Amino acid sequence: MAALVERDAAVVEGLLAKLRDPDTDLPAKYRILFSLRGIAGREAHAAMLEGLKDPSALFRHEVAYCLGQRQDPAAVATLRTILKDEREHPMVRHEAGEALGAIGTEECLQPLREHLQDPCQEVAHTCQLALQRIEHFAAAAAAAQAAAEADANATESRYYSVDPTPAAPASTPLPQLASSLLDEEEPIFQRYRAMFALRNRGGSEAVQALGSSFTSARSALLKHEVAYVLGQMQDALAFATLKRVLEDANENPMVRHEAAEALGSIAAPECITLLKQYAADPEPIVADSCVVALDMLEFEQSGGFQYADDGGAAALASDGAGKEVSASA
After folding, report:
1. Is 94 labelled a binding residue?
2. Residues 289, 161: Cα–Cα separation, whole Å
3. Is position 106 annotated in a ligand binding site?
4. Can you tell me which residues bind Fe cation 2 (predicted)?
5. Quick one: average pLDDT of 154-167?
6. What is the pLDDT of residues 30-55, one digit of tens each?
7. Fewer CB within 10 Å: N-end or C-end of the chain?
8. Is 115 annotated in some ligand binding site?
């Protein structure tokens, strides 16, 4: 993750005023959030927390994601409260758990342990992954060989997101990665490692292996992350697969939401047509995701450099390969 930058208090105050304005639409709120995400300091952090009051579960989950990507320990108490709140949308709770794993401090451990067996499977699996992520990097710090492996994986990735798990070693054969990803008996932590290694590998075989998980995997959490990494890869070969996911009304909304945002990242003409069609989907999370994806596309096609509010656009940290914005997973 790129370093946060300093901005005048007036910039943050202006962004916060826009965020609180009831006339600010969802795409504009996203631009404000992505600006605040890249700004250092308590004021920007506090302004981001205002977004958790928003009626949109999609936006609240994006706020939780951004708090994790900042890796600021100041967010731990808030994220812990979200994770415990069973009245909150499962997608928001999932993102809070993942954010705790991304921050990875000692105080993140207990809330994650408390929800390892959460009644919501997506939340439970997220906390299991987050805890294993923290344990993995703690072990790597204590063992020179493991540390060398972690460093190698970090440099092999072209992507700057703080991922829920490290990638499997780049030397792992692609068929082995594909087999691990699709193996329902494999621990989900290892399946995630295979997934991120396939993303880093890139190419048609990797895209095909990732896409196969939508028809074989039982875990909505895994499938939503696969959709996210396909969006990061921005490979048009994934269009047909993502189209099927978005069109499937029986699929978990969090998976369809990520498919919509991934289609927006690919940005082919057929993606735009599909997103316009599903911007009126009966599921609000899916519809809102399509609206935001279309707004991001329009911004990029206009020649804009960073998808953010003009008041703090320069603060936005790059979070993808050749793409300035990477929305949540």
Report:
1. yes
2. 19
3. no
4. 224-225, 257-258
5. 81
6. 999 999 999 999 999 999 999 999 99
7. N
8. no
